[in-house]
C-alpha cells in the first residue's frame, strides 16, 4: 500500500449490498479510512449497525446529518476515491444526470476524486437502452465501471448483472486512488510571472532573418510549472516551436508572440514592473542587421561577396537588473558551448559578474545538448557566482527545481 486512502463507499439499495460489507471490511483491514454512505433503501438490506461496526465510523445517510460540518460536501472533498457498490440502475441513472437529492448524490458532485462503480441489477435492467446510455455517459466521463459479472442473480435468474466480487472492486478502487494526480502545491499562488521563451529573429530583408535554434521548450516548461503551482503566468514567445506553444494554449496560459529583440524588450519593459518573477529563457539575438532591407535582397545585385552591418540589440536582462524592483526575482540563462563543467562554470561566472541576475541557470549547448531536446541539465548560480544547485532531468523538472530556488529567496 503506498499510503492509506480516504475512501467513500456508497451503497445503493440492492440485494448485493450484503457483498459490499465484505468490500468495506477488506478496505478497512488494508488500513484505509472508509466512510459508508448508504441510501435509505440500502439500509433496508443491511442495517446501519453493520456498516458502523465494519467501517468503525458512523454511517451517513441524510444530507441533514451533521449539517454544521457541511457533511454533504465534506466527505466528497476529502475522498481519494468514491466507490459505489452496488450501483443500482436507479443510482446509475441519477449519477448520469447529476442528481443530488440524497447524500450520495451531493457527495459525488462535490468530489473531484475518481469514481468507481460496481453495477448490480437484473439482466433486463442492465441491458435496457436507458441503462446502456447512462453507463456510456459515465464511462465517457472517466468513471471506472467494474463488472457486472454473469451468473446467478436473485431468485432463479441467471445472466449478466451480478455485482463483481468485493476483492475485484477493492482492487479497482485502490488502483484509481493510486493513479490520481497528487493535489498540486500552490506555492506560487497569485504570483505574477513573466517568462520569455524561444529565440528572436532579426530581419535582414522581408524574407530572411538572423535567428537561433531555441525551441522554446524550456520556457514553456517554466510557464507550465509555474501555472501548476498557482502563478499568474504570461509568456513572451519568440518564434516558439508549435508543440510548446500548443502546450501553453492547452493550459490556458497567456502568450504574447513577438519576433525581434526590440519587440521583446518593449514587452518586458511593459510587464516586468508588475511581475514578482521574470524568467529570461529566451535566446535573444545580441546583434541585428543595422538597416533591414524593405525589399528582398537580390543576389545578382549583391555580387560574389557582401557584408551585413549589425548593431547591438538592447540587453533586456541587463536593463532589468539595472532597474531592480524590491522583492522581484530575475532569473537569467547562459547557454554556453562549454567542453566540461569547469569551463561552463567559468563562463557562467564571467556572465554573472557582468549581469548579476538573482539566479543564473547555466547549461551546455551544442553537440545535441540543450536546444530542442526534451531534457536539460544545468548549474544554477546566485548573483555572487556561488553554485546553489545542479539540476538535471526533464525541462519541467529543471523548471520546478529553479522555481523552488526562487521561493527560497528572502521575500
Ligand atoms: N539576454 C537579454 N538580452 C539580450 C541578450 C541576452 O536579455 N540582448 C538574456 C537572455 O535571455 C539570457 C541571458 O541574457 O537570459 C544570456 O546572457 P548573455 O550574456 O546575453 O548571453 P549571450 O547572449 O549568450 O552572450 P555571450 O555571447 O556574451 O555569451
Key descriptive features of the protein:
37% helix; 411 residues; five-stranded parallel beta sheet; binds cytidine-5'-triphosphate; 16 helices; Rossmann fold; elongated; alpha/beta; 2 domains
Write the layout of secondary structure elements.
Layout: E1 6-11, H1 17-29, E2 33-38, H2 42-45, H3 48-55, H4 71-78, E3 81-87, H5 89-97, H6 103-110, E4 115-119, H7 123-127, H8 129-140, E5 144-145, E6 149-152, E7 158-162, H9 166-179, E8 192-198, E9 202-205, E10 208-210, H10 217-228, E11 232-238, H11 242-250, E12 254-258, H12 261-271, E13 277-280, E14 287-289, H13 299-302, E15 310-312, H14 316-322, E16 329-336, H15 341-354, E17 359-364, E18 375-382, E19 387-394, H16 395-408
This protein binds cytidine-5'-triphosphate.
3D architecture notes:
The longest helix is centred in the middle third of the chain and has 14 residues, at 166-179. By secondary structure, the protein is α/β, with parallel strands linked by helices. The protein has helices spanning 17-29, 42-45, 48-55, 71-78, 89-97, 103-110, 123-127, 129-140, 166-179, 217-228, 242-250, 261-271, 299-302, 316-322, 341-354, 395-408, and strands spanning 6-11, 33-38, 81-87, 115-119, 144-145, 149-152, 158-162, 192-198, 202-205, 208-210, 232-238, 254-258, 277-280, 287-289, 310-312, 329-336, 359-364, 375-382, 387-394. The strands form 5 sheets. An 8-stranded mixed β-sheet has the order 12-11-8-13-16-17-18-19, sandwiched between helices. It has 2 domains: 6-180, Flavin prenyltransferase-like (Rossmann fold, 3-Layer(aba) Sandwich), CATH 3.40.50; 192-408, Rossmann fold (3-Layer(aba) Sandwich). It is elongated, with a radius of gyration of 30 Å. Cytidine-5'-triphosphate binds at residues 196, 261, 280, 282, 284, 286, 313, 315-317, 332-334, 351, 355.
Amino acid at each position: 500500500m503506498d499510503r492509506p486512502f480516504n475512501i467513500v463507499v456508497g451503497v445503493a439499495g440492492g440485494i448485493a449490498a450484503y457483498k459490499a460489507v465484505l468490500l468495506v471490511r477488506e478496505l478497512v483491514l488494508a488500513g484505509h479510512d472508509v466512510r459508508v454512505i448508504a441510501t435509505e433503501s440500502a439500509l433496508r438490506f443491511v442495517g446501519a449497525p453493520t456498516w458502523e461496526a465494519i467501517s468503525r465510523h458512523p454511517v451517513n445517510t441524510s444530507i441533514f446529518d451533521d449539517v454544521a460540518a457541511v457533511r454533504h460536501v465534506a466527505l466528497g472533498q476529502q475522498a481519494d476515491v468514491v466507490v459505489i457498490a452496488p450501483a443500482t440502475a436507479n443510482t446509475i441513472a441519477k449519477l448520469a444526470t447529476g442528481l443530488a437529492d440524497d447524500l450520495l448524490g451531493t457527495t459525488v458532485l462535490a468530489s473531484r476524486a475518481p469514481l468507481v462503480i460496481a453495477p448490480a441489477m437484473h439482466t433486463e435492467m442492465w441491458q435496457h437502452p436507458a441503462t446502456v446510455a447512462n453507463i456510456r455517459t459515465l464511462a465517457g466521463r472517466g468513471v471506472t465501471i467494474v463488472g457486472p459479472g454473469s451468473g446467478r442473480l436473485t431468485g432463479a435468474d441467471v445472466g449478466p448483472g451480478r455485482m463483481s466480487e468485493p476483492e475485484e472492486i477493492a482492487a479497482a478502487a485502490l488502483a484509481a486512488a493510486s493513479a490520481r494526480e497528487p493535489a498540486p502545491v500552490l506555492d506560487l499562488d497569485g504570483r505574477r510571472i513573466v517568462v520569455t521563451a524561444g529565440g528572436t529573429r532579426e530581419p535582414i530583408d522581408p524574407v530572411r532573418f538572423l535567428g537561433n535554434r531555441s525551441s522554446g521548450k524550456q520556457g514553456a516548461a517554466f510557464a507550465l510549472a509555474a501555472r501548476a503551482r498557482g502563478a499568474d503566468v504570461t509568456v513572451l514567445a519568440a518564434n516558439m516551436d508549435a508543440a510548446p506553444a500548443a502546450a501553453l494554449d492547452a493550459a490556458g496560459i497567456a502568450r504574447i508572440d513577438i519576433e525581434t529583440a526590440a519587440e521583446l524588450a518593449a514587452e518586458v519593459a511593459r510587464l516586468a514592473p508588475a511581475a514578482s518573477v521574470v524568467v529570461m529563457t529566451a535566446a535573444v539575438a545580441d546583434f541585428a542587421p543595422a538597416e533591414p532591407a524593405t525589399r528582398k535582397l537580390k543576389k545578382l545585385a549583391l555580387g560574389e561577396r557582401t557584408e551585413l552591418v549589425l548593431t547591438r540589440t538592447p540587453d533586456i536582462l541587463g536593463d532589468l537588473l539595472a532597474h531592480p524592483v524590491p522583492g522581484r526575482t530575475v532569473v537569467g540563462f547562459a547557454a554556453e558551448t562549454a567542453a566540461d563543467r569547469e569551463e561552463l562554470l567559468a563562463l557562467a561566472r564571467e556572465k554573472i559578474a557582468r549581469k548579476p541576475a538573482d539566479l543564473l541557470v547555466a547549461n551546455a549547448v551544442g553537440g545535441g545538448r540543450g536546444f530542442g531536446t526534451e531534457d536539460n541539465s544545468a548549474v544554477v548560480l546566485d548573483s555572487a557566482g556561488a553554485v546553489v544547485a545542479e539540476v538535471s532531468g526533464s525541462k519541467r523538472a529543471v523548471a520546478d527545481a529553479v522555481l523552488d530556488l526562487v521561493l527560497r529567496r528572502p521575500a
